[in-house]
Specification:
This protein starts with 5 loop residues before the first helix and ends with a helix. By secondary structure, the chain is mainly α. The protein has one domain (6-448). The chain has helices at 6-10, 14-44, 49-85, 89-116, 118-124, 132-145, 147-162, 166-190, 195-219, 239-268, 273-299, 301-309, 313-340, 342-347, 353-366, 370-385, 390-402, 404-415, 417-420, 423-448. It has 20 helices and no strands.
């Protein structure tokens, strides 16, 4: 079954096709970062470093939902686009049903597990007597109650984007983000719930965004191959293996990022909660540059996967070139802006001298990784688009956890809190170099074909 988006994949000029797919994706990623920053911003207006630190300590556990969404969303999107490239619409339907129902079940189990094991998990991520209660309340609403809609919101966006409906997918993500920004001050200040209000706002916004995607799929039933009908749920034909192995690198990158953040927080909490709050704010701000690079790389996955399966390697190579140029240009400009405006950006979140000092220092260090991250994420997405599993997994593990954690311990020993953040640019540069070494042979092979 041909869709009205087939021409976008096959005939639209490459630059226009790339922009049509990535611009909405980048916008949705930016809005997602803004609403993530909104939690920290509005909590920071309470001028309580302990609540800001609690939000930072909770972030790694909350971000695991992104890993689950990427596991099924990116893995499913890759398989759906490759299936459509060879005209197998039935497999695309079965893939979508598997991704939706399995991701919902896994998210539910995760949310319950966080609640049951909170007495063990929260101290393990670095909470103390001042932050434990804040973290417990925040995670109850965002994960125990909200894990399923949070995962489904992001996973459905990936699946809808796989069929070329990038604008509609991005609107759904933006809807959740916009609602969160509106609801944050209402619950934090209006209902005087403080950090708990931020958590309730996040849960409700993700729930409403998920309902939007359910309605979209129902309305476009004749045009989309994505289905929520459980009768299409299938674990045959290698669907679970393809989805999970292709989506695993993005999920592992997220898991390793969580491990990296927890390690960083555990090291910095030995100095002060202001240091933990500072790195949390800096990382939230830097997520803007990563969101742009991630949006560019994820947005182009359907175009690359479709043309790879259709044996149109020249069009695929052209799409890669355009995406790399765009990613490098935008992230370089972003890095310069974040470096020069570090102090006022951090101060906008909290008016605490120690937190601002740590945050602005950390911001100037970690923002320089933007161009490195742009190259690495595009390479990972290319490997995922063509169905390769091992290489993107290696890059994901190197970028987060594999290189930065050992350097954190080393730099902590050599220079203390002021030096730890340098582990991030060191790791990102190393991952980029390895990524180029792995990518060049594939690029040459595609050129010959």
């Amino acid at each position: 079954m041909k869709t009205d988006k087939t021409e976008l994949f096959e005939k639209t000029p490459v630059t226009r096709a790339v922009l049509a797919l990535v611009v909405p994706t980048v916008i949705s990623q930016i809005i997602t970062v803004i609403y993530n920053m909104a939690d920290t911003f509005f909590i920071g207006q309470l001028n309580d470093a302990n609540q800001v630190a609690a939000a930072s300590l909770s972030l790694p556990l909350f971000l695991l939902t992104t890993g689950l969404a990427n596991l099924f969303g990116i893995g499913g999107a890759s398989l759906i686009s490759r299936s459509l490239g060879v005209g197998d619409s039935e497999r695309a339907k079965r893939t979508s049903a598997f991704c939706v129902w399995t991701s919902a079940a896994v998210a539910l189990v995760y949310g319950v597990m966080i609640y049951v094991l909170r007495g063990v998990i929260l101290p393990a991520v670095g909470t103390d007597e001042y932050t434990y209660g804040f973290c417990e309340s925040y995670l109850f609403w965002t994960l125990t109650v909200g894990a399923v809609p949070t995962v489904l919101n992001a996973a459905l966006a990936h699946l809808v984007r796989a069929e070329g409906y990038s604008g509609q997918a991005s609107f759904g993500v933006a809807l959740g983000g916009g609602l969160n920004i509106i609801l944050d001050p209402v619950f934090i200040f209006g209902f005087k719930l403080q950090i708990t209000g931020a958590a309730v706002a996040t849960m409700l916004s993700n729930l409403i965004a998920t309902l939007y995607f359910v309605a979209l799929i129902a309305l476009k039933r004749g045009k989309l191959h994505i289905t929520l009908n459980p009768r299409y749920y299938s674990v045959s034909g290698g669907i679970p293996r393809e989805v999970l192995l292709v989506g695993l690198p993005s999920s592992i990158m997220n898991l390793m990022g969580i491990f990296s953040n927890i390690t960083l927080n555990k090291l910095l909490v030995n100095y002060s909660n202001a240091a933990v709050a500072g790195i949390g704010i800096a990382k939230k701000i830097d997520m803007l540059a990563f969101a742009i690079a991630n949006g560019l790389s994820q947005g182009v996955i359907p175009l690359i996967g479709y043309n790879y399966s259709a044996k149109n390697t020249q069009r695929m190579r052209d799409a890669v070139k355009v995406t790399l140029i765009l990613s490098l240009a935008v992230t370089t400009v972003g890095a310069v802006l974040l470096f020069t405006c570090a102090n006022p950006l951090v101060r906008a979140f909290i008016n605490d001298a120690d937190t601002v000092r740590y945050g602005s220092m950390f911001q100037r260090i970690i923002c320089i990784t933007g161009p490195f991250t742009a190259i690495t994420t595009v390479i990972i997405s290319i490997f995922q688009s063509v169905g390769q599993k091992v290489k993107p997994l290696i890059l994901s593990m190197l970028r987060k956890g594999g290189l930065d954690v050992p350097f954190m311990f080393l730099l902590d020993h050599l220079g203390g809190a002021d030096a730890i953040a340098w582990a991030t640019p060191i790791a990102d540069c190393g991952a980029m170099l390895v990524g180029l070494l792995l990518f060049i042979p594939l690029w040459r092979k595609l050129g010959k074909e």
